[in-house]
Design a protein that fits this description.
This protein is α+β, with helices and mostly antiparallel strands. The protein is built from 4 helices and 3 strands, in the order H-E-H-H-E-E-H.
Length: 75
């Protein structure tokens, strides 16, 4: 949920998520891959000389985060 919440603020790089959330890069990229495969996150690849990939929530990812937040506040 931390990754989804952070991506809801703005698209960002996996390494930035690693530094902000204090999770290993392997963990971050594993979760990003799973979220991407489930259609919750999409990749945005910069076409500049250094190809950088940012991740952002899809509309389904935004809905999932909203539902998770509702569930958390109800408990």
């Amino acid at each position: 949920m931390k990754i989804l919440s952070r991506l809801d603020e703005a698209p960002t790089h996996g390494y930035q998520l690693h530094t902000e959330l204090g999770l290993t890069t392997a963990t971050i990229y594993q979760h990003l891959e799973e979220l991407s495969g489930a259609g919750m996150v999409e990749r945005l690849t910069d076409t500049g000389p250094r190809k950088k990939t940012k991740y952002r929530l899809t509309s389904d990812g935004e809905l999932l985060l909203e539902l998770l937040n509702q569930n958390t506040t109800e408990e």
